[in-house]
Amino acid sequence: MIVFLNEILMDFRSCFKRERAFAWFVITIIGFIVRTEGLGITSIIRDLTLNPDLYPTYLHFFRSSAWIRQELEAQWIKVVVNHAPILKICGMNILLGDGLTYGKEGRRMACVQKHHQESENSGKSEWVFGHLFGCVGILAGCPSGKLFCIVLSATIQVGANKIREFADPTTELGSHVVQLIAQAGSIAMSIGPSIIVLDRYFLSVPALIEAKKYLNLQIITKCKRSITAFFDPPPYSGKGRRRKKGASVKLMSLFVTEKTKFIAATVNIYGKQQDIEYYCVDLLWGQKLYQKMRFVLVSYDDTKSILVSTSLELSAVQIIELYSYRFKIEVAFKELVHTIGAWLYHFWSKYMPKLNKFDKKINIKALEAITDVHAKKKIVECLKAIEGYVMMALISMGLLQIFALKYSAELNHSVFRWLRTKTNKIVSEATMACYFRKNIFNIIAQNRHLPIMQIIIAKQNDVILDEDLAA
What's the pLDDT score for residue 174? Predict the structure, then answer.
């Protein structure tokens, strides 16, 4: 497993202009996996016993010009496609997308905005200041065993447009919904035909228009209960303009009017067999767009839902089962927060306008007033540090997931971690991280010849390392 880790990380060498920058990248990836605290890069220095005098150099690495986040992302996608057992349906990859809001109240932290949280958890406030990331992952594993959502990309998609214009004045970005579709479309262009599964927030005309730009991308999502669609227009009579749509229909009413046409089936939903009834119909949707899509009305256990797919080739059962995988990205978010600490960064810039919580358009006017080139550069570097930190956290989490799919048999025969009940043959990301945390110094001592271990040893505090090896 350590040799495999060495091979993967060495493949990222081409993404860095300088050897020292690559060395800090290796330390960051392994540091995310083994750290036991949530204190930013301070915890990585502690848990890998690095020389504390290197802290300023390490901090500068995240703002360095020696690497570009987009190149890291492209290489990471190649690694996942080459080494992870990607789940496919009808020859298409299954992408999962969603937004994640994480609270940040740094007064001079880039892109902090006020966000509304649509959560049923009473422990969360209705409004929060922080960063909104758009994330896209890919489904890997086996439906009969264990499935992971390996997150491939995460970028700040609200409050960052003006800062991105500092770096590239020609940048034109849309809303969070449009940016997420474009993010998924870019991934689909590099990995082949794909379906992205989203929640109902992303069903909109701008999202469908953006998706049409990518021939390799299809969308599956859920509809609101108030949704109205249209039948095909009647044949052209030869007079006047051709009609774009036919009669309208409220889809919830079809649960009553088409009740006799529902088909009974047993499908795999959320990891268990479920008896359902469904009705499938192709209709037009979208004001002034009127795109034909496949709607699937599903009824089970007093639950009624309406799913929709832009692909007319998928069957109703396939659409139902695919949508049931959507929650896997929520599980990935949970592990990124609690196991890796992907959003525990503290990057800020003194050139960033001070946060005014009472301004409706937070910092927009203040950013527009900045004319100093040096100040703009420093603010862009702050945004780069934040997104780069998260990108490296995604790589660390994805490596744990790939290791779990490949090496669970070896860990299950080990007694390194006591579990009351072993529920799966495939171990979790937390179990895999626990293995590394308990054995990191043995791993370093036994594999000193590997390049990634030599990188860590070269930056360690020699006194502490000798004591640990002696123990």
Answer: 87
